[in-house]
Design brief:
- This protein has 508 residues and is α/β, with parallel strands linked by helices.
- It is built from 18 helices and eleven strands.
- It has three domains: 125 residues, 3-Layer(aba) Sandwich (Rossmann fold); 131 residues, no CATH class; 204 residues, no CATH class.
- Strands 2-1-3-4-5 form a five-stranded mixed sheet, sandwiched between helices. Strands 6-7 form a two-stranded antiparallel ribbon.
- The two termini are 48 Å apart.
Length: 508
């Protein structure tokens, strides 16, 4: 294993507000990312589709021969078999079977394929039975045979043929791997990388001793040769070894040079919609799909927001009515509380909640607490959360909160009216929590990056401890959600929010 150790001054700055400000913005006109030229997902998808149909044809032939006992029967393919095949491709995508990192480890590839086939068969059986599709009653043997043949074909072609054919080109396209972090902390990761095809040529930048690590990495990537086999193709950033601002700058640097960036941090586990990378690198790793500040239109996400929010408002209308009556009958004042919040791009909007505080009370205590929390000056308080004494990063025992309001807050019922904000487009189902204007007024420069994504009802913070997560960690999670999110991550966060809210996990 090659190891290049970059040393600098002995003491590093405690906080890097803007390590290299010109590195943060990503200008597509200036950037010319080369990226890996190999796209194995296309090969995997083509072979899966081809052999899926072949497997179904063989299963039909085998079933005809068994049933007829030698007597020829005409093949009678059923359209309903397309449903299990579609489910199979969805499960394959969800488990990461179309990710290029699969070429790095053949055994993990085969194990993931086996898990995907089992999940596909189980889900397909349930769906086919519930929908009373013909394939479930006309020929169960055909369905079982199709899955069996499909698994054999996929296992042989993927892990033996394609891995060998594409493996060499994959290694050349990946180039060298650069790891930024403290040597003793990144040693297990570097050892693991040396065992993986395409990641085994590892260099190290000592993030614990380098004062301007982002600028140093930028110089390193700018001076590399044009030979793809020698150039850096992957950048691993250990977020425990550098400041959050430096981590974000390193992401922007890597993306600007066309390098695939991976961030290692336990705080990002909720963003691992697929466990493939965690299993592959044996560490909490998230791959960055876009740079901070890079925007993409997501019509599918907006359509999902509209459909789900409208359906939820209708389905939860009885619960909304009960909450409204509870607020109205127990304290003076309006049922709904309209509050100005800051949304996408720093624009203000009116956020709606069930009123959980006494009417007419001021916000001076909360304003002062948030100022201290954002500046790192707030004193954490210890509270018994889920049976354990833990530090709580929230204004605890706020005297302004009513008894009913405390119950609504604990189970996030006070936030249900925000479904209207989602429906009208001010918010999304998943995204950072919208801040108050006086919070944004005391933001540090890198905090503003969380305003580059539309705020949401739920997000990483809601499923990862809520009040147990400090402010900087919360902002870091929000920004990395924007950098790495996809449809699967959104679905995972939505599903995990339900038990977190019902059980009151992390609520102060």
């Amino acid at each position: 294993m090659a190891a290049m150790r970059v040393t600098g001054v002995e003491e590093r700055a405690m906080e890097s507000s803007v390590v290299s400000r010109h590195l943060v913005a990503v200008d597509p006109k200036v950037s010319a990312p080369t990226g890996p030229r190999l796209h194995p997902a296309r090969w995997f998808l083509f072979t899966d589709l081809s052999f899926g149909l072949v497997a179904y044809g063989l299963a039909l032939t085998f079933h005809a021969e068994v049933v007829a006992v030698g007597e020829a029967l005409p093949l009678d393919p059923s359209w309903s078999m397309l449903v299990p095949l579609l489910i199979t491709f969805v499960v394959f995508h969800a488990l990461g079977l179309y990710e290029r990192e699969l070429l790095a480890h053949r055994a993990l590839h085969l194990l993931t394929l086996a898990k995907a086939m089992l999940w596909s068969a189980a889900i397909s059986a349930l769906v086919v039975y519930l929908l009373h599709l013909p394939v479930a009653f006309e020929s169960r043997l055909t369905a079982v045979g199709a899955f069996a043949f499909f698994f054999v074909f996929a296992a042989v072609v993927r892990t033996l043929v394609l891995s060998r054919v594409l493996g060499r080109r994959f290694r050349e396209d990946m180039g060298r791997t650069l790891v930024v972090g403290w040597p003793y902390r990144t040693e297990p990761l570097r050892e693991r990388l040396t065992m993986l095809n395409g990641f085994d040529r590892v260099d190290l930048v000592d993030g614990g001793r380098e004062q301007h690590v982002a600028a140093r990495v930028d110089q390193h990537l700018s001076g590399q040769s044009g030979d793809r086999r020698l150039a850096v193709g992957s950048l691993f950033v250990d977020a425990r070894s550098v400041t959050i601002a430096e981590t974000l700058d390193l992401i922007a640097v890597g993306r600007r040079h066309g390098v695939t960036v991976y961030v290692v941090s336990n705080r990002l586990r909720p963003l691992a919609g697929r466990r493939l990378l965690i299993d592959l690198f044996e560490a909490p790793v998230v791959r960055v799909r876009r740079a901070p500040g890079e925007r993409r239109r997501a019509p599918l996400k907006r359509a999902t927001d509209v459909v789900v929010s409208a359906g939820a408002l209708i389905a939860l209308s009885p619960l909304l009515l009960v909450c409204a009556l509870a607020v109205k009958l127990t304290s003076r004042g309006p049922v709904l509380y309209a509050q100005e919040r800051i949304g996408l791009g720093g624009g203000p909007f009116k956020l709606y909640k069930f009123r959980s505080m006494r009417h007419g009370v001021g916000a001076d205590a909360h304003r002062e607490y948030m100022r201290a929390l954002i500046n790192g000056e707030a004193e954490t308080r210890t509270q018994r959360v889920e049976g354990e004494e833990q530090e709580v990063f929230k204004l605890v025992d706020d005297p302004r909160v009513t008894a009913v309001g405390r119950f609504l807050r604990r189970y996030s019922l006070d936030e249900l009216p925000q479904l209207w904000n989602v429906l009208v487009g001010d918010m999304s189902l998943v995204g950072p929590r919208p801040p108050l204007p006086y919070e944004v007024a005391v933001y540090q420069p890198w905090h503003h990056r969380r305003l580059e994504v539309k705020p949401g009802i739920t997000g990483v913070w809601q499923v990862d401890g809520r009040s147990r997560v400090g402010f900087d960690d919360m902002v870091f999670q929000d920004i990395l959600y924007h950098c790495s999110r996809d449809t699967l991550v959104d679905a995972s966060l939505c599903l995990r929010t339900v038990p977190a809210a019902l059980l009151g996990h992390g609520a102060a």
